[in-house]
Amino acid sequence: MTERETIVITGVGLASPNGRDLAEFRANLLRGVSGVRAWEIRHVGKTLAGVCEYDALKHQSKKELRRGTRAGSLAVYCANEALAHAGVELSRYDAARVGVYTGITEHGNVETENEIHQVSQYGFDLSFWSHHHNPRTVANNPAGEVTLNLGLKGPAYSIGGACAAGNIGLIHAAQMLLLGEVDVALGGGVSEAIHTFGIFASFKAQGALAAHAEPARASRPFDAARNGIVVSEGGCLYVLERRSDALRRGARVLAEIAGWNVNSDGHDFVLPFADGQNACMRGALAHAGLAASDIDILNTHATATPSGDEVECAAIRAVFSDSTRTFVNNTKSYIGHAMGAAGALELAGNLPSFDDNVVHPTINLEQLDERCELRNLVANEPRRIARCDHVLNMSFGMLGINSALIVRRPRA
């Protein structure tokens, strides 16, 4: 990318299980504070989840919340907070030139399950079925709710990228800015996964649902005792702009988008594939014009499943084995797996490293699985490094979709 075409991040709005804004989220990552707690859901019973607590009424009325969805609420909250963080006044922009791109893993299951349960209480009399069901369950709902809330008229849709979707929402936003389709873009991901029993039931049937007597210790990437995924909800949207536009309005640039890659394994419905992940990382490095040794922080996707972590570590070793500069961490150990929001949230947690040169650790790592050994894996305590210039954020998903996004320290 030329300097004129550089896309930058100027605002972050998030709701995570352990933070309602970037400052709180980052502070809790450095303090080792988990957002995982006991959770109970219909037809599954007691389990664990990463649960968000945020002020849903800050940007919506009770009526709007009743009519909309949890994913839409998360998206509306994150969009408003991101715009405020960026200092963007929408009244100064053409509403048709503002785009919204929300990555999602799935959407509509929560609403459909709830409606089926509702009508089952009345002998399946469909007169009790909500007439709001269809607009609630269309895949573009989270992005659409943002446009309704903010009065936006530009291109807005959700991008189904499984658990790679948070990165892909950002990547697509950057691409639309480079194409000149929009002047401001909101990109990232959202997930309401903890409100659908289907996701919990499926992971439980696979033996992939984490269990631990202490909820905060349940998500254990790379640990020899890891036993599965903690399902989480969350959202994170970014304000992206062309660098020249951001500088013209005097915005503070948080990071520059350096490069990315999205690919597919073409291998299996659910099993991870090291070759595909390897190619994705190398593709992002090539797009950014960087070597592996230029990356200071590598944020892993690792979900704490036995095979998933092992395969990812093999891919990382193949790409980064010679890099003494690259430090490796993981965010799911704090918040669980936020599905479509995971990549976006995990990138956010590492952005402050450009200012403080500190790498947040992977927590709950008590006994490293020897198959997950990685050079410079930061465990349990933050690590100060000489300087942070580049962060590589990795997110992978079912059906073999992989994404890698590289951001760099903003230039003066």
Main attributes?
about 400 residues; alpha/beta; Peroxisomal Thiolase, Chain A, domain 1; 2 domains; 10-stranded mixed β-sheet; two-stranded antiparallel sheet; 14 strands; about 35% helix; about 20% strand
Structure write-up:
The structure is a single chain. By secondary structure, this protein is α/β, with parallel strands linked by helices. The chain folds into 2 domains: 7-248, Peroxisomal Thiolase, Chain A, domain 1 (3-Layer(aba) Sandwich); 259-408, 3-Layer(aba) Sandwich (Peroxisomal Thiolase, Chain A, domain 1). It has 14 helices and 14 strands. The strands form 3 sheets. A 10-stranded mixed sheet has the order 5-4-6-7-1-8-14-13-9-10, with helices on both faces. The longest helix is centred in the N-terminal third of the chain and has 17 residues, at 70-86. The radius of gyration is 20 Å and the shape is globular. It starts with 6 loop residues before the first strand and ends with a strand. The model has no long low-confidence stretch (mean pLDDT 97).
